[in-house]
Protein: Small ribosomal subunit protein bS6m
Organism: Psylliodes chrysocephalus
Amino acid sequence: MIPYEILFLFRVMPKPELTSALKRAANTIFQKGGIIRKLEHLGTRDMPYKISVHGVPYRSASYFLYECNIPPAKIEDILDEYNRDVDVIRRRIFKKNVPETFECTLHEECLPPPYRKDVQELIQQARRSDKPKFKYNTGLDYYPFQK
């Protein structure tokens, strides 16, 4: 399954109601075959602009971030469920970028060019390759350019 991040903006409400809204959101993920890896509360703050959802205008929201693994075929179903939820002001699903692992080669790169491993490999490759030779014979019986 592919890792995703789901950002929720819930309406500002008391803790028991907020807890039940978070459980509903989590149960939707579980019912669709997903796994929640992490739940993070980003705080309650004012939104950059007024948003009107389900006929009610909102100026502040509680921000939550779910990190989860979800089957890609179920994302539309999950978004449809969250769209019907009255407590959810805004929801966004982002594909999480998996950081690439790399090996530090700073010590090798600080060496002078003749001593670097990749430069030595290029020199060996150049020595092994057969360079094409220029052929003077063009197949013509005469020299096309007058001297």
User: Anything to note?
Assistant: The two ends are 74 Å apart (CA to CA). The chain has a mean pLDDT of 89. The longest helix spans residues 15-31. The beta strands are 2-11, 35-53, 56-70, 88-95.
